[in-house]
Amino acid sequence: MKEHIFNLLGTQYPLIQAPMAGVQDSKLAIAVSEAGGVGSVPCGMLSIEQIVHEIKAVDSASNKPFNLNFFCHKPEPYDPTRQNKWQKRLQPYFTELGAEIDSNDKQASRMPFSHDIADAIESFKPQLISFHFGLPSKDLMQRIKGWGGKVISSATTAGEAAWLEANGADGVIAQGLEAGGHRGMFLSMDLSTQQRMTTLLAQIIDAVTVPVIAAGGIANNSDVKAALALGASAVQVGTAYLLCTEATTSDLHRDAIKNRERSETAVTNIFSGKPARGIINRAMKEVGLMNELAPGFPHTAIEMSQLRRHSKKLGRDDFIPLWCGQNTQGCSEASASVITKQLVYGL
Ligand SMILES: Cc1cc2nc3c(=O)[nH]c(=O)nc-3n(C[C@H](O)[C@H](O)[C@H](O)COP(=O)(O)O)c2cc1C
């Protein structure tokens, strides 16, 4: 018997606004939670001080349920030889942009969930925590459960979903191949295992007893209804919020989404080292979608972030990750509250 979704989310609507690191902060989460969905605060690229600041911002603005999201990848060691090869591959772009590679920069800004983070957030007793790239260690899971928190995480195969349930997840997000941003893959990095949302959803519903949340390509009320009719207990929607007024999506990113002629997306590893879906830009075309020279996650992002900054200054999106799902039909420059109501009621 599956737990009722209300016990997990505690909200009026079975809808989670997908956490989207880099394009939103607590403002979007507050707007969605106040509108009756679950707003999410992505913490994967924040410092501990910033995470605490965001939790306080949500707590002071709203008493509605919200979700805190973390990455829980196993950091791969920084490998100077691999990094050097990657730098050589990207050198022509630095030359073109009149910039130099900063080789002293060795820290990419993506930290996995840790005891230090748990120490900092424990007193706030966050009730819903979502993870990407698996689950944290058993003792960290126990700490979250110890303060009464529920845990959900993304699965991109039925095998990953079963693993998540066996390791303590209270719900599983079925992340279809259409989804924008990083693929939550953690048992295998083989892209041929990845399925579209409807196929994956059916397989995951069969594989687990916990509630299943459908994600990927859900852009309007018909999509929400279809996912629920297929047996999802809730939906998680990201791309549809990318243009909304509360998102911090950059102008270059917004322009690429609005420009339908070029909003074709693909999965690439060249921005972080892990596969993620974004709008195809010059870097993806020229460096290749999946480049084997890309160092381990997240070290690939070190030089790419430098290129991104130079590219941005020139007003070009050539080296900017334009994370976006395949279905941009739900994107509009409305408030998050309007988008949430459109998704839930089709208003
Ligand atoms: C710009 C962007 C950033 C994302 N960042 C995160 C993140 O930080 N953590 C996470 O768990 N998922 C992240 N995702 C993936 C979403 O959780 C979700 O799987 C996806 O948005 C659902 O598909 P859709 O974009 O088609 O709605 C991101 C997605 C996008 C579009």
The appropriate CATH architecture of the largest domain is Alpha-Beta Barrel
Q: Which outline best applies?
A: globular
By CATH, the topology of the largest domain is TIM Barrel
Number of strands: 11
The figure for the number of domains is 2
Q: What's the name of the CATH homologous superfamily of the largest domain?
A: Aldolase class I
Which class of the largest domain in CATH terms? Alpha Beta
Distance between the termini: 33 Å
Largest sheet: 8 strands, parallel
Polypeptide structure, described:
The protein is an alpha/beta fold and 347 residues long. It folds into two domains: 5-73 and 110-249 and 328-345, Aldolase class I (TIM Barrel), CATH 3.20.20.70; 76-109 and 264-323, no CATH class. The chain has 13 helices and eleven strands. The strands form two sheets. Strands 1-9-8-6-5-4-3-2 form an eight-stranded parallel beta sheet. Helix 4 runs parallel beside helix 12, helix 7 runs parallel beside helix 8 (197-207) and helix 9 (221-229) crosses helix 13. It is globular, with a radius of gyration of 19 Å. The model has no long low-confidence stretch (mean pLDDT 95). Flavin mononucleotide (FMN) is lined by residues 18-21, 23, 42, 44, 69, 130, 132, 154, 175, 178-182, 215-218, 236-239, 323-325, 327.
